Amino acid sequence: xxxxxxxxxxxxxxxxxxxxxxxxxxxxxxxxxxxxxxxxxxxxxxxxxxxxxxxxxxxxxxxxxxxxxxxxxxxxxxxxxxxxxxxxxxxxxxxxxxxxxxxxxxxxxxxxxxxxxxxxxxxxxxxxxxxxxxxxxxxxxxxxxxxxxxxxxxxxxxxxxxxxxxxxxxxxxxxxxxxxxxxxxxxxxxxxxxxxxxxxxxxxxxxxxxxxxxxxxxxxxxxxxxxxxxxxxxxxxxxxxxxxxxxxxxxxxxxxx
Length: 257
What we know:
Elements: E1 11-14, E2 19-22, H1 34-37, H2 41-51, E3 57-62, H3 70-73, E4 78-84, H4 88-98, E5 107-110, E6 123-129, H5 138-147, E7 149-160, H6 168-172, H7 181-186, E8 193-200, H8 202-215, H9 222-242, E9 250-256
Parallel strand pairs: 2-5, 3-4, 3-6, 4-5, 6-7
Antiparallel strand pairs: 1-2, 7-9, 8-9
């Protein structure tokens, strides 16, 4: 879901309830943790609350994965929502998930990356939720993304923070990097306006550090995800505000064109 991709033969299929474009991509996402994090409801609700005020008009979600985030962020101000997912296996799960969602008539799914979009189509919001860290040439990706953004529109990026925390898990799921404020800002084109650039999940930082130093796991267990989401994330909501979003294991950036 996360890289610049080669094209093969493409085909389009119109479904009765869901607009779907399947391109026959050969890209395969290396991780298998997405199904675990789908159950991280507190975490998803936390970042959704911060992002939702910017979501209106025509939305493009790059690297939609299994579709766990789309229904959570979808709201009455959305005119259309396009999900890009280049991994074919994830794309099929995405379509199954979206087909059960009440807002499906406004959603189109495409088995492709950013390069597979119509050249003249532009969007009001472009989302990269835990995606940009998977893209080797992030600066080139951002140049292409901003070119597809309407004037006054927003790019929203949520990514893991701090290379200090880079662990076997990051390597296993295909991360090229974790970001800090300066490295994420350096990927963004000039002549853009930074709306916010905040760290999130301050308490979770220490859990990630413990995993790197002590556990060295390539994948968290379901029980670890549950503990983090049930106990650490609610604490982070409190401490993130107290720390003025200056510290955390994830970073949220929003820019306008």
